[in-house]
Amino acid sequence: MTGTENFQVIPVAEVNATFVDIIKFDLQTDDPDLVERYNEQMQTDLFPDAVILVVTKEELNNITSLKNIIDDVNNVLNWMKRESYDTEIPVICVLNKIDEYFDNQLPSSDTDVKKIEEYTRKALELVNKYLIIPSTKCIPVSTTKNYDINQLRLNINAVSPLNAQIIDKNLDYISQYRQSIANKIIAAFSTASAAVSLLPIADIIIINFFQEWMYRMLACFSVDPNRTPDSFKAVNRIHQGVSIAIRTGSLFIADIFQLTLVGYSIGSGICVFAGAMATTSLGWSCYFYFID
Question: Is the pTM of this model over 0.70?
Answer without folding.
Answer: no
